[in-house]
Amino acid sequence: MSNPKHLSRRDFLRTASFSAVGLALAACAAPGAAPAADTGAAGEAAPSGEKVTVRFHSRIGQQEDTLYDMQMPKFMEEYPNIEIVRENFPGEEYATKISTMLAGGTLGDAIWTALGGAKIYFAWAQNQIAPIDDLVAAQNVDLSQWYEGCINAITMEGNLLGLPFKAHPGLAIVYYNQTAFEDAGVDVPTAEWTIDDQVEKAKALTKTEGDRTTQFGYLPGIGSTWKTLVTLTRSFGGQLISEDGTQFLIMEDAGRQSMQYLYDLFQTHKVAPTPEQMVGSGNDMWISGTLGMIQGGTSVSVTGSAIGDKFEWMVVPNAIGPGGVGGSDFEVDAYSVTTTSKHPNEAFQWVQYLCSKDSGIQLGLIGGTVGGRPDVYGAEELLKFPFRVVFKDVMDNAMASRVTANWRQDEAETTIQQLTQPLWAGEAQPDEAFLESLRAQIQDIMDKPRP
Question: Does the reported pTM lie above 0.85?
Answer without folding.
Answer: yes
